Amino acid sequence: MMKKKLCFPDWIPLLLLCHLQLPTLVCSKHHGNPANDLVEIINQNRTAQKLERLNDSPGLGCMALQYVELCKGNCSGNSAVNCKPPTDDFTEVFAPNCGVELPTIGTITGHIVGCQLKYTEPSLAFANVLVKDKKSLSVLRNKSHSEVGVGLIGFHKGPFFWCVLFSNGGTNSSFVLEDRGEGIKQKKGCYSGSAFPCNAGHRSAMLFNYIITFSYLFISLLNQIWLT
Ligand SMILES: *[C@@H]1O[C@H](CO)[C@@H](O)[C@H](O)[C@H]1NC(C)=O
Ligand SMILES: *[C@@H]1O[C@H](CO)[C@@H](O)[C@H](O)[C@H]1NC(C)=O
Ligand SMILES: *[C@@H]1O[C@H](CO)[C@@H](O)[C@H](O)[C@H]1NC(C)=O
Ligand SMILES: *[C@@H]1O[C@H](CO)[C@@H](O)[C@H](O)[C@H]1NC(C)=O
Fold it and tell me: Domain of life, per the record (predicted)?
């Protein structure tokens, strides 16, 4: 019988579906959030040096994402970023946009920003983009910090930015988000400690992939129907 014979192998659409997921941020260990992975990598690096673990602060993470959103167009190549938002932006723009409760805004004790042309996994971004010289290593290992937040964003056709913010505030008393951050309207990118999944900024590439995949599924289906 011809009934079971297909022109297109059944597994191709499946393969395509998997392929969609691979280059995106979905494969990350912690609920698809590479910002959380980077926080873990930072803490592993610190504890290996017998330094205190840093508390993951969603408020700081959200502000780190706000920071890198301003860096678009300022990736000067070789992971360097020419991006210095005015200091006042922290209290006047980033914190209000994130819904950080004003009295809980703490001191930023350090920051590291890096960019690259494409997305790479957090461990590679850590070693090759963010902490690749003595200066950033000393920021990472500064004993003043007690908490950390990571934000990342990719713009259409790259580049890809990462930002790490450190603070010396108390665990539950600094950079506290109103309604636990539920009011944040995160359009792109992601940040550590977020209650939302990442929005990779690969949206159009993803959409294209989906269209291809579903066209393929549709053609396979038609083939099946015609052959019966
Ligand atoms: C981006 O680069 C431009 C040109 O060098 C500079 O004027 C601007 O301040 C930079 N943006 C930020 C957020 O630092
Ligand atoms: C650690 O960070 C604090 C606050 O930003 C700074 O004053 C201090 O100089 C830093 N220490 C080192 C060793 O870099
Ligand atoms: C910590 O990070 C630095 C910079 O990437 C690296 O040279 C060092 O080997 C790391 N240490 C550990 C214990 O992973
Ligand atoms: C912070 O708040 C969480 C949840 O409300 C609680 O479980 C935790 O013990 C608190 N940590 C500190 C250091 O107060």
Answer: Eukaryota
